[in-house]
Amino acid sequence: MSYRHIKIPETGQKITVENDRLKVSDNPILGFVEGDGIGPDITRAALRVWDAAVEKAYGGKRKVHWAELYLGEKAAGMYDGDYFPAETLDAIKDLIVAIKGPLTTPVGGGFRSLNVSLRQELDLYACVRPLEYFAGVPSPMRHPEEVDCVIFRENTEDVYCGIEYQSGTPENKKLAKFLREEMGCEFFEDAGLGIKPISPFGTKRLVRKAIQYAIDNNRPSVTLVHKGNIMKFTEGAFRNWGYEVAREEFGDQTITEDELWSKYDGKRPEGKVVINDRIADIMFQLMQLRPAEFHVLATMNLNGDYLSDALAAEVGGMGIAPGANMADHIAVFEATHGTAPKYAGQDKVNPSSLMFSGSMMFEYIGWTEVSQLIASAFTKTVADGIVTYDFARQMEGATEVPTSGFADALIERL
Ligand SMILES: NC(=O)C1=CN([C@@H]2O[C@H](COP(=O)(O)OP(=O)(O)OC[C@H]3O[C@@H](n4cnc5c(N)ncnc54)[C@H](OP(=O)(O)O)[C@@H]3O)[C@@H](O)[C@H]2O)C=CC1
Ligand SMILES: O=C(O)CCC(=O)C(=O)O
Ligand SMILES: [Mg+2]
Fold first, then answer.
1. Is 306 in the pocket of ligand 2 (CB under 6 A)?
2. Which of 57, 178, 225, 283 is deepest in the core (most CB within 10 A)?
3. Chain CA centroid to CA 328, Å
4. Is 253 in the pocket of ligand 2 (CB under 6 A)?
5. Helical packing angle, 200-216 and 235-249, nearest 10°
6. Is 393 within any annotated ligand binding site?
7. What is the pLDDT of residues 213-234, one digit of tens each?
């Protein structure tokens, strides 16, 4: 494939899929997108950490060959104002695994979120965001070590679909007329209108992935999070379809919470994953008061977005909140946070969210030694009191370092 601006390194080999599994050489080509705002600062720092950790783990036997891909403001400057060049999508499909920095989305108008578009275009249907506590990281919780939970957020449906009609437009008036006259709906004049599609297909593939993850990783429960008491046929249906997939496809490996109590007196049988559900509003409180009860959360798009940032606060904040957008094979890793524009170009913010998103990427390609090295060097760096501003402001006597300085300190401790 020939590209206008993207250069695929000739020294590496592309990852392929064989027999439903990734085939990764010792010299894989991985894509990266620098991103907007703080993106360049954190990407620069994280790339150095990843390369150093790979070198440390494999002593030159393995090496990543990076291919820079373009989205957002950098892309617009190169592709005649195109923030979302088609060749970047082609390259991600071709390379299979990539990592991206955050991308800016204008509020209340302008272009649609490039992040959401990317997830939809590549059908990256599961947004996977682990909440893991690392010793020494400052947290507002009394027992942050009790937080150990992975959010599986549906990434392609819900109000993020972009089916919205602006107040005053002909399309809005047409839909409002239909809803009032044909469907008997009542709402205030000139209301903006949005549609919230939640399908059995979209729900089941997400919940299936969450349950499979719980089984593969020996996690005791999967909690379906929803506001199904109010939005019965979207959020309530998500809950019902979630239980259905558990029952029909994982009947031998799962039990419901009702069965846990009615048949097993509250004692989970060895090897069974408990499927339960919680209404979204109480979920925010439960994750603060009794986080140890939750291990995997399966959520729709909006609830998962809100929960991701709220729960990240429990384990250190947006500076340490990694994630992945996953299809069955293609995966694009990215931090949970955005472009934090007030810190853009200041070499100030914490690169750990992106760095740990990279750790997830290395685990995905089977290079687990790299993620283990990064985790232990991170813990040592924080234990030595060397941290970026976000941790420093919550710690006594810490030494605040810039983004690049944190990467230097971590690399020294690999
Ligand atoms: N996947 C993506 O690309 C995402 C993109 N966005 C986009 O990003 C833009 C800004 O969104 P906004 O709501 O401000 O959210 P952000 O996540 O960009 O920033 C909010 C706050 O989180 C803290 N923060 C974020 N990143 C870091 C970091 N690496 N280290 C330390 N602290 C960090 C800062 O807190 P403090 O002020 O306390 O220092 C920052 O002001 C918007 O255009 C939004 O659409 C948002 C989320 C995801
Ligand atoms: O696309 C965006 O700008 C925001 C997306 C977001 O907040 C998220 O995916 O967590
Ligand atoms: Mg978000």
1. no
2. 225
3. 15
4. no
5. 50
6. yes
7. 999 999 999 999 999 999 999 9
- Is 48 marked as binding a ligand? no
Measured from the Cα of 305, ligand 2's closest atom is 10
Q: Is ipTM beyond 0.95?
A: yes
Q: Is 33 in the pocket of ligand 1 (CB under 6 A)?
A: no
Instruction: Find the 183 Cα to ligand 3 centroid distance in Å.
Output: 34
Q: Hey, what are 150's tokens?
A: 């992975």
- In single-letter form, the type of residue at position 379 comes to T
The answer to whether 305 is annotated as binding is: yes
From ligand 1's centre to the CA of 318, what distance in Å?
Answer: 7
Q: Whose CA is nearest to atom 5 of ligand 2?
A: 115
Residue nearest to ligand 2 atom 8, measured at CA: 305
Active site residues: 160, 227, 281, 305
Residue 1 pLDDT greater than 90, yes or no: no
Which residue has the CA at smallest separation from atom 38 of ligand 1?
390
Tokens of 21: 């599994």
pLDDT beyond 90 at 280: yes
Q: Is 3 annotated as a binding residue?
A: no
Task: Please indicate whether residue 392, judged by its CB atom, sits closer than 6 Å to ligand 1.
Answer: no
pTM over 0.90: yes
